[in-house]
């Protein structure tokens, strides 16, 4: 199937990144959000990020102008009806996503491919509540989208090969690499990454090391570009906890038990960079470890 027009639902940090890379790859993009403010902010963020790419010679100013011109925004979900591919990237709550698909389905062309950027919700379950489980799959980008090279493509139990191949073609046109994952809790990247982050929090909780020694150890001793606690703050500690809970519930194995200290940080509202405090305090000039 030929994909030229991409509809993106949700204009948050992931949605605007997806719109950004799609537009630069030449797709016409229709970006939807319930919030006019979120759409306005997304346009500003994309313009700022493309400007940064121009200043670093990653793209030309003509690419930036053409890219921005390909992005339209709308608060009306029905306007996404003519899109060839939909990527749902709204808030990570199953009831929210389900309501979006219910509202969207009556407006879609029969051949439109429907996908979700969910980090943790079962693709098979989301698909089963639509009229096109064979044309439904997971399209999981990494944050920040313009920088990260990987996209996980997740087949639900019913996803057909034509749908998978069409999505793989889109990933190639984005100049990114696709990793194919089966539909099991947290897919591949988070299945491996989150238990490591959770173990780093246990290492802190049990007093084996402090924030600095744990992050230094993994940066300098394992050659990771960021320490695990620094990375957890970047992702958001609430997101890390939610993914651990999905692994724990979905696989019923105690090895995925979220660390009580991670829960405590989330209860305190210390969610990492987005709230200016997590394993580091970001309110001053340089981040200061909180333990
Ligand atoms: P976010 O909170 O930044 O953005 C979510 C957006 O969805 C908000 O602008 C909100 O107004 C909008 N929204 C809520 N209900 C809506 C509705 N009914 N219709 C249209 N828009 C609606 O969240 P995010 O970090 O961009 O995450 C979005 C999705 O991407 C989630 O499924 C998340 O699991 C997934 N994801 C996140 C990351 C990450 O690192 N943050 C990485 C990969 C995937």
Question: Can you characterise this structure?
Answer:
There is one protein chain. This protein has 291 residues and is α/β, with parallel strands linked by helices. It folds into two domains: 5-181, 3-Layer(aba) Sandwich (Rossmann fold), CATH 3.40.50.720; 191-289, Orthogonal Bundle (N-(1-d-carboxylethyl)-l-norvaline Dehydrogenase, domain 2), CATH 1.10.1040.10. Helix content is 45%, strand content 15%. It has helices at residues 13-24, 36-55, 61-69, 94-104, 123-128, 161-173, 189-205, 211-221, 228-235, 237-251, 260-267; strands spanning 5-9, 28-32, 71-74, 85-88, 113-116, 136-141, 150-155, 177-182, 280-281, 288-289. β5, α5 (123-128) and β6 (136-141) form a beta-alpha-beta unit. α1 crosses α2 (36-55) and α7 (189-205) packs across α9 (228-235). The chain starts with a strand and ends with a strand.
Mean pLDDT: 97
Q: What is the global morphology?
A: globular
Task: Tell me the strand order in the biggest sheet.
Answer: 3-2-1-4-5-6-7-8
In percent, how much strand structure appears in the residues? 15-25%
- Calculate Rg over CA atoms: 20 Å
What's the multimeric state? single chain
Ions, cofactors and other bound molecules: nicotinamide-adenine-dinucleotide
């Amino acid at each position: 199937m030929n994909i030229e027009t991409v509809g993106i639902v949700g204009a948050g940090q992931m949605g605007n990144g997806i719109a950004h890379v799609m537009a630069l790859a030449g797709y016409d993009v229709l970006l939807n959000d319930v919030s006019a403010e979120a759409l306005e902010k997304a346009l500003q963020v994309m313009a700022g990020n493309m400007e940064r790419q121009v200043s670093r010679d990653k793209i030309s100013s003509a690419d930036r102008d053409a890219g921005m011109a390909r992005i339209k925004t709308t608060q009306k979900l029905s306007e996404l009806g003519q899109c060839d591919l939909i990527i749902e990237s709204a808030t990570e709550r199953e009831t929210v996503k389900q309501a979006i698909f219910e509202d969207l389905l009556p407006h879609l062309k029969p051949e439109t491919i429907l996908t979700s950027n969910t980090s943790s919700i079962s693709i098979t379950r989301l698909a089963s509540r639509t009229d096109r489980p064979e044309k439904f799959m997971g399209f999981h980008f990494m944050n920040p989208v313009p920088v990260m090279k990987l996209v996980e493509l997740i087949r639900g139990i019913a996803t057909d090969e034509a749908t998978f191949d069409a999505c793989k073609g889109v990933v190639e046109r984005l100049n990114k690499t696709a990793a194919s994952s089966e539909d099991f809790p947290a897919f591949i990247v988070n299945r491996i990454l989150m238990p490591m982050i959770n173990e780093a929090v246990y290492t802190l909780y049990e007093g084996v090391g402090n924030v600095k020694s744990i992050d230094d150890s993994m940066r300098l001793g394992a050659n990771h570009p960021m320490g695990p606690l620094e990375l957890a703050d970047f992702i958001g500690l609430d997101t890390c906890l939610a993914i651990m809970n999905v692994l724990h519930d979905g696989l019923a194995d105690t090895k995925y038990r979220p660390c009580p200290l991670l829960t405590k940080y989330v209860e305190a509202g210390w969610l990492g960079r987005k709230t200016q405090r997590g394993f580091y305090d970001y309110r001053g000039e340089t981040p200061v470890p909180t333990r």
